[in-house]
Amino acid sequence: MKLTRPISWFLAAFGAWSWVIWVTFAKNLWKDASGLAFHNGQPTAYFWVHLTLAIVSFLLGTIIGVIGIRGVFASRQADQ
Questions:
Q1: What's the average pLDDT block by block, 10 residues per block, for the chain (80 residues)?
Q2: Residue 41, class by beta-carbon neighbours within 10 Å (0-12 exposed, 13-18 middle, 19+ buried)?
Q3: What is the Cα gyration radius of the chain?
Q4: How high is the pLDDT of residue 20?
Q5: CA-to-CA distance for 78 and 39, rounded, in angstroms?
Q6: Angle between the 5-30 and 45-79 helix axes, to the nearest 10 degrees?
Q7: How far apart are CA 60 and CA 58, in angstroms?
Q8: Dist CA 25 CA 43 (whole Å)
Q9: Phi, psi of 44 (to 5 degrees)
Q10: Which of 4, 49, 45 lies closest to 25, judged by CA?
Q11: What is the pTM of this model?
């Protein structure tokens, strides 16, 4: 499959955006003082579910970003 340059940039940006959003969320989850993520110092089900979501999103963001970056490099090589 051949990706166009705009689609490649979109995928690369989506991957970066995913990391920014989910890293921020994971930091906030870890520092949670509301009692949702930790109860008496122990992680709750809320914590584990959201940590799993963050990890999956990191992985998907990385995969999508790598596909986008590879598409950008491929389109640059095709122009030369």
A1: 91 96 93 90 94 95 97 86
A2: exposed
A3: 17
A4: 95
A5: 56
A6: 160
A7: 6
A8: 16
A9: -100, 175
A10: 49
A11: 0.83
